[in-house]
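TICKET: design request
STATUS: open
ATTACHED STRUCTURE:
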């Protein structure tokens, strides 16, 4: 767990450094000042964020040379189906991963589309924080600046997590994290299944064993909550398969089973 926190802290610090070095002059100077303040908050909050964010997964996909595939995302129109607390929280995580995916690949229209549905679910869940109050303005002002945009969206993830944990909504926070993690795994398995040389993508999949174990450990502390218990039951077969993963490579059977489970779990989540 400590290692995960250290990695997350390093990543957010690096993103902040890139963001600040990219800013300069006029309107960007104002954004730089606000991001400096936000970075200080990030350094504190990211150390408490328990698993890698979807940004880290999509950055690995980008680095490995994967193409952006829009059809892998949860369609934005599905947001109209999410009325329950459970479906809204899980799919805020899913759409957050889609937002990470689109912005990492600098897909501007898709970034705005997924930003809008994520913001709608944030509002539906009444996650009212000082940072999220200006979230829309920050995203729109930095839509052409990839590094700034990634920093802003990441900070919203951490800020949302902090809000939920500080307001006795640990269960909601766990559902958001669960939805985001599942979507990241789903996207990765789908890309791996259509890529001829998928060695790098298999390594990314194998690396998700520890984050899943960390997530399940956290959920176990709140399993008295029915919503969390249902998600634990949903993820348990996947955890059982990952228990047999001991290296950064996977057998054909493991790949097939993880892909199958990631798809079925994700379908269960996004159906509402």
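STATUS: resolved
RESOLUTION: sequence designed for all positions
ATTACHED SEQUENCE:
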């Amino acid at each position: 767990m400590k290692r995960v926190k250290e990695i997350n802290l390093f990543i957010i610090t690096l993103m902040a450094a890139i963001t600040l070095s990219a800013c300069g002059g006029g309107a960007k100077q104002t954004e730089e000042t606000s991001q400096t303040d936000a970075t200080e908050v990030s350094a504190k909050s990211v150390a408490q964020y328990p698993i890698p964010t979807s940004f880290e997964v999509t950055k690995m996909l980008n680095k490995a040379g994967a193409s952006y595939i829009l059809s892998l995302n949860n369609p934005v129109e599905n947001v109209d189906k999410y009325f329950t607390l459970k479906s809204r929280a899980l799919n805020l995580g899913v759409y957050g991963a889609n937002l990470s995916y689109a912005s990492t690949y600098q897909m501007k229209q898709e970034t705005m589309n997924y930003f809008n549905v994520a913001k709608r679910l944030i509002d539906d869940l009444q996650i009212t924080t000082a940072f999220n109050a200006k979230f829309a303005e920050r995203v729109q002002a930095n839509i052409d600046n990839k590094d700034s945009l990634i920093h802003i969206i990441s900070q919203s993830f951490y800020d949302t997590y902090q809000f939920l944990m500080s307001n006795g909504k640990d269960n909601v926070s766990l559902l958001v994290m669960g939805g985001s993690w599942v979507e990241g795994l789903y996207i990765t398995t789908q890309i791996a299944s259509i890529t001829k040389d998928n060695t790098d993508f298999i390594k990314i999949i194998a690396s998700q064993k520890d984050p899943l174990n960390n997530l399940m450990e956290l959920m176990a502390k709140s399993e008295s909550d029915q919503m969390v218990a249902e998600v634990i039951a949903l993820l348990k077969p996947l955890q059982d398969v990952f228990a047999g993963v001991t290296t950064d490579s996977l057998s054909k059977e493991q790949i097939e089973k993880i892909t199958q489970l990631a798809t079925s779990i994700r379908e269960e989540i996004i159906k509402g």
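CLOSING REMARK: The chain has 13 helices and no strands. Residues 131 and 159 are 7 Å apart (CA to CA).
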